[in-house]
């Protein structure tokens, strides 16, 4: 009769104890791509649930805003200082909406999904990241409206312009996610942060060249305009204006030379690197505080 090869009952595996919760941060989020996709779909479906027009509203909203800006700034105020001023504003509005929606929704994301966090062990960074992706999804309808508005003015896509647009998206994706991570965990400890973020985002559209051109900043503040460009959001707006608004003007080359700052792409790459660094710092802070999130949500 053959001897049993089973290990003794009291055999103990010599391995360190680890938490069942995910500990790999943002890398772990993208290893759970299926869950991330479900979260994004759920957020989008919830936003339009019970609506007759559904996703069509995501086109109606940016179109209505564009028409409002045309009426107020072009027809009513006759702002002819800046050529095609309505498009100038709308290009900036895309950046501003993407950032503020990511920041606001990301800050509330963990508290809003507390029931799911209690039931499942999954990387909690997934919720701010999902908020950013939902905001990115809503950039597409705005972009469609913008292109339709630009084409009658003779705009055609060019390689540098598309690179500028992608660079701007990268800055907002990284910076918005970084701030969403930081403030989402802070909001778990003190719910006041959600209200504070709502107030902070009110100032965003005035801190970028949206309702005024960058040349006005140069005229009024002279050499101090360099400090204005330390704002990653302002840099992202200028990059999107290079991608779309510049091409609608009567002389795009002259517009780019006179209406935009020098070394636009170099500055954009620097801001992309700073935004990436901010995301790394935000991830470290988030990981240092995430273990107490479940008990704080009770």
Describe the structure.
The chain crosses the membrane at residues 52-73, 85-106, 127-155, 161-186, 193-212, 268-286. Its main location: membrane. This protein has 298 residues and is mainly α. The chain has one domain (26-296). 68% of the residues lie in helices and 0% in strands. The chain contains 15 helices and no strands. The protein has helices spanning 26-31, 33-48, 57-76, 85-112, 114-119, 126-137, 139-150, 159-189, 192-200, 214-221, 225-228, 232-243, 252-259, 264-289, 293-296. Helix 3 crosses helix 7 (139-150) and helix 8 (159-189) runs parallel beside helix 14 (264-289).
Mean pLDDT, as a whole number?
85
Number of strands: 0
User: How many domain regions?
Assistant: 1
Proportion in β-strands: under 5%
Specify the structural class.
mainly alpha
Helix fraction by DSSP (H/I, runs of at least 4): 55-70%
Query: What is the rounded distance between the termini?
Result: 58 Å
Question: What is the topology?
Answer:
Layout: H1 26-31, H2 33-48, H3 57-76, H4 85-112, H5 114-119, H6 126-137, H7 139-150, H8 159-189, H9 192-200, H10 214-221, H11 225-228, H12 232-243, H13 252-259, H14 264-289, H15 293-296
Helix pairs in contact: 2-6, 3-4, 3-7, 4-6, 4-7, 4-8, 4-9, 4-12, 6-8, 8-9, 8-12, 8-14, 12-14
List keywords for this structure.
298 residues; transmembrane helix; single chain; mainly alpha
Compact overview of the structure:
The protein is mostly helical.
């Amino acid at each position: 009769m053959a001897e049993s090869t089973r290990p003794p009952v009291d055999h103990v595996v010599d391995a360190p104890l680890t938490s069942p919760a995910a500990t790999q941060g943002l890398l772990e989020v993208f290893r759970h791509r299926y869950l991330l996709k479900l979260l994004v779909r759920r957020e989008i479906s919830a936003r339009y649930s019970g609506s007759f027009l559904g996703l069509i509203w995501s086109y109606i909203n940016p179109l209505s805003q564009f028409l409002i800006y045309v009426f107020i700034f072009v027809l009513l105020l006759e702002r002819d200082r800046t050529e095609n001023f309505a498009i100038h504003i709308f290009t900036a509005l895309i950046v501003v909406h993407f950032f503020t929606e990511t920041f606001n929704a990301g800050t509330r994301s963990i508290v809003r999904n507390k029931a799911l966090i209690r039931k499942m062990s999954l990387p909690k960074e997934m919720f701010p990241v999902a908020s950013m992706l939902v905001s990115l999804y809503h950039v597409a309808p705005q972009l469609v409206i913008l292109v339709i508005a630009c084409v009658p003015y003779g705009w055609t896509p060019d390689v540098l312009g598309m690179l500028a647009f992608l660079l701007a998206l990268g800055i907002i994706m990284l910076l918005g996610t970084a701030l969403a991570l930081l403030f989402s965990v802070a909001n778990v400890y003190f719910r006041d942060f959600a209200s504070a973020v709502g107030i902070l985002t009110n100032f965003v559209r005035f801190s970028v060249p949206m309702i005024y051109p960058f040349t006005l900043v140069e005229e009024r503040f002279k050499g101090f305009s360099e400090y204005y460009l330390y704002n990653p959001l302002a840099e992202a707006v200028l990059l999107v204006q290079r991608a779309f608004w510049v091409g609608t003007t009567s002389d795009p080359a002259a517009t780019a030379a006179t209406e935009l700052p020098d070394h636009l792409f170099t500055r954009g790459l620097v801001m992309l690197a700073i935004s990436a660094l901010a995301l790394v710092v935000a991830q470290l802070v988030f990981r240092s505080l995430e273990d107490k999130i479940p008990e704080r949500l009770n």
